[in-house]
Amino acid sequence: MLLHEIILIAIGLGLEIFAIVVCKGAVFSKIHKKTLFQLIAIFATWQLVTVIIGNLLVGMLHFTLSDSNESGKFLLQVLSIIIFGVIAMRMLFLAHKNEDVIESREDSIKVNNILQISAIVGLNGLVAGVGFGFMETSMIHQLIVLLSVSVLAVIIGIYVGYNYGYRPKTRGYLLGGLILLVTDVVLCIRYFN
């Protein structure tokens, strides 16, 4: 997988983090640096951990399919494209669903609540890690790009939510889903042309 494809997928995944964190920023009366760093630590760390686990799962299974022949490698690439397509569709569904958020001021975060939310986001990271692994993507490139995008998604999401409320979350899901969908089409063209 090429670096620009990794970046696009990371941005698509990061926009889910952005959408979630926008809702947190919308309820703050003031943004505290400690809270911001806690959110960055939780979301960025969990995103990296789940992607690593996804890659490791593929590493354990990979030798049986891809090393045997070219048809095994082709199957893994098809599975990877399906994985990224499913993540894109999920994000587009979340954008369409557009659940309302009850805004009430709260200046601290409930770590247990944030951990539960990041666990759900982490499922996308896990599945994306499997998809990256199927495409034999460099793990160091994945981790550097995902870490950077996750940190930016939290920072931008908090400030956008703080300044504009929770409404931009739908655009985050929509844009993330569209970016992943377009990247999926690009991968199809590149790998199956």
Task: Give the SSE map.
Elements: H1 3-26, H2 33-65, H3 70-97, H4 111-134, H5 139-164, H6 168-192
Provide a quick synopsis of the model.
By secondary structure, the chain is an all-alpha fold. It is built from 6 helices and no strands.
Shape: elongated
Unreliable runs: none
The Cα radius of gyration reads: 17 Å
Helix coverage percent of residues?
over 70%
Report the span from N to C terminus: 15 Å
- What integer is the average pLDDT? 87
Number of strands: 0
- Name the helix and strand elements from N-terminus to C-terminus, one letter apiece: HHHHHH
Number of folding domains? 1
Largest sheet: none
H/I helix tally: 6
The percentage of residues in β strands lies in: under 5%
Give an overview of the whole structure:
The protein is an all-alpha fold. It has one domain. It is 83% helix and 0% strand. It has 6 helices and no strands. The chain has helices at 3-26, 33-65, 70-97, 111-134, 139-164, 168-192. Helix 1 (3-26) runs parallel beside helix 5 (139-164) and helix 2 (33-65) packs antiparallel against helix 5 (139-164). The longest helix has 33 residues, at 33-65. The model has no long low-confidence stretch (mean pLDDT 87).
Tags for this entry?
193 residues, mainly alpha, elongated
